[in-house]
Amino acid sequence: MRSLVGLLCGVVFGLGLIIAQMTNPAKVIGFLDILNGWDPSLAFVMGGGLVVFGVGFIMLKGRKNSFLGASVRLPTASQIDAPLVLGAVLFGAGWGLSGLCPGPALAALTIGGSPAFTFVVAMVVGMFLHQLYQRQIR
């Protein structure tokens, strides 16, 4: 049952990204470029996502288990450290340069196009290199 709910949520999320044009790099770059013909439409998409997240977070706060019985482990870290800042900078730079971020890039694979494929390959390579780095420092 849990896998079915996960699949359904993923499909709804992916369709939402496609319908909202978050999978269109030109649309995303138009949103990020505030000095040259800014397109604010994606702010509504992000705002809607924040509302859904906020309601879900409030519903889970204080619970030990999710509605499907999985344990709930909310983040406890509250400090801003170098890995967080570096990760945010890399994420923002990648988003600004390519017009894609991980979720929309995966959804864009379903509608084709080499930019999404190239982005996902680079993302997987980056994840692999990060795992290697983490093993080295431990």
Question: What would your notes on this structure say?
Answer:
The protein has 138 residues and is mainly α. It is 69% helix and 0% strand. The protein has six helices and no strands. The radius of gyration is 17 Å and the shape is globular. The mean pLDDT is 89.
Tally of contiguous helical segments: 6
Q: What structural category arises from helix and sheet content? A: mainly alpha
Order of SSEs, N→C? Answer: HHHHHH
Q: Give the percentage of residues in beta strands.
A: under 5%
Tally of extended strands? 0
Count of the separate structural domains: 1
Radius of gyration: 17 Å
Given as residue ranges, the uncertain stretches (5+ residues, pLDDT < 50) are none
Query: Could you tell me the mean pLDDT?
Result: 89
The separation of the N and C termini measures 37 Å
Summarize the amount of helix as a percent range: 55-70%
Largest sheet: none
Shape: globular
Key structural traits:
single chain; 138 residues; mainly alpha; 6 helices
